Amino acid sequence: MKSLNLSIVTIIGIVAVVSFGMFILLIPHTSERLRIATPQDSNFGEIAVNPVTDKVYVCNNLIGFVYVLDGHTNKTLNKIPMGGLPQDVVVNPMTNKIYVVISSYPRPLADNAVAVIDGVTDTIIKNINIADMGKKPPEMIFNALQGGKTYKIWPVQIAVNPMTNRIYVSDWNYGDGGITVIDGRTDQVIDTIIGLGGGSYGIGVNPNTDRIYVNNVQYGYKKPYQIAVIDGATDKILTNVTIGLRGPHGVSTIPGPSIATLAVNPSTDLIYADCAGCITSDENRSRDWMTVINGTTDSVVNTIPLSVLNIAINTNNNTVYATLGVDPITLYTGSFRVAVIDGQTNKVINYLESDKVDSSVAVNPTNGDIYVTGNYLGKGSVYNFER
User: Fold this and answer.
1) Domain containing 233: what range?
2) Which helix (H) or strand (E) holds 144?
3) If DSSP codes are grouped into helix, strand and coil, which group holds residue 131?
4) How far apart are CA 77 and CA 148, in angstroms?
5) β-pair partners for 363
6) Do 384 and 370 meet the contact criterion of CB atoms below 8 Å apart?
7) CA–CA gap between residue 373 and residue 89 (Å, rounded)
8) Beta bridge pairs of residue 129
9) Which residue among 8, 177, 187, 307 is buried most deeply as judged by most CB within 10 Å?
10) What are phi and psi of 298, to 5 degrees?
11) Burial of 287 by CB count in 10 Å (0-12 exposed, 13-18 middle, 19+ buried)?
12) Burial of 332 by CB count in 10 Å (0-12 exposed, 13-18 middle, 19+ buried)?
């Protein structure tokens, strides 16, 4: 049994913090339901932590802001208007720059971009136009959603190698996604990696080996779900690791945190990737699992039967945290739990519990604090499970 302090932070309006002792069991039970007034239009998504400054950056992908929290006080420091919908956020602690993916969807006239934020002033210092990537992918047409509007590029996820100061942006695209490579010294696009064989989504970097890992989804029954392994020195694809086959229901065709997420533990050289709507070669019913890949051998070494939305890793204690698409206890879609996984055994050892459907998770490896964004019935909160 483990005792944690759970702090809930209201991001918009008055900041309210509620702290109390909470005992978490393998099947957790909360004796008191949490109640907190939050705006009805909140929708908190991806989250990132700067372990050096102890600042937390939270995307609101409904109204187009990134919120900056003080990780020590859990108070809102700033609210940064992005001029579009922030899809993902990553921090380079070496340069104290924050990179935010801005997607045009569902605003066809907006530009896809990566916003660069100065971590000292919490202001945007540059917008990198992803159209500059020079890539000519197949068109994406959403007749039902946008009246036949055509989208050629849809950036969704972002990762950084703090050692080489390069930033990698994945492009979700029917048929053939790609990766945009940005030089963090100039904040300019320097390369585009194409030919990954599917819509590129989850992305992670091992700075120790300078390898980039991309979760790619192909369309079509029994098409392979593959993790592309890329050499950061040459931007060349080294190999593809198959983690499953697309089932009859497959994965959602609309990008979101519920599909194809990925995280890398550079300390153990293990890669954790979601396989959503997957089957093995002798199955006909789709299911979800988390795949564990050995980065040294580029081979699958384990699978964990979880439906995963988002993954974060504490590299200091080798603990993996995953928000869940299907609750492992109730089997309902949408979970109020975060799975805690022992990185040595790759077994679920605990669950953290909130009062909203958990979306994304981030961890500060310096102090062990875990941050989770949760949304329910139009209300959003950020939870800090303090160590």
Assistant:
1) 95-100+107-305
2) helix 143-146
3) helix
4) 41
5) 370
6) yes
7) 13
8) 113
9) 177
10) 55, 50
11) middle
12) exposed
- Whole-angstrom CA distances from 31 to 330, 373, 379 are 18, 21, 22
Q: Which amino acid is at 341?
A: I
Q: For residue 43, what pLDDT band results from cuts at 50, 70 and 90?
A: confident
Note whether 309 and 324 are within 8 A (CB). Answer: yes
State how far the Cα of 73 lies from the Cα of 271, in Å rounded to an integer: 32
| 98-126 pLDDT, tens digit each | 999 997 655 443 567 899 999 999 999 99
Residue 172 is assigned to a structural domain of this protein? yes
Tokens representing 2?
A: 């483990």
Contact 169, 130 (CB under 8 A): yes
Tokens of 269: 């050289």
Supply φ then ψ for residue 306, to 5 degrees: -135, 145
Domain-embedded: residue 20: no
Q: How many domains is the chain partitioned into structurally?
A: 1
Contact 92, 99 (CB under 8 A): yes
What's the confidence (pLDDT) of residue 331? 67
- Distance of alpha carbon 336 from alpha carbon 146, whole angstroms: 32
With 0-12 CB in 10 A as exposed, 13-18 as middle and 19+ as buried, what is 361? buried
Residue 59: inside a domain: no
Q: Does a structural domain hold residue 157?
A: yes
- CATH for 271: 2.130.10.10
Residue type, 246: R
The identity of residue 265, as a single letter, is N
What are the structure tokens assigned to 160, written together? Answer: 């950084």
The closest alpha carbon to 256, from 140, 142, 383, 105, belongs to 105
Q: What are the residues whose beta carbons fall under 8 Å from the beta carbon of 214, sequence distance 6 or more?
A: 170, 179, 196, 200, 201, 202, 203, 227, 228, 230, 262
Query: Helix or strand or coil: residue 149?
Result: strand
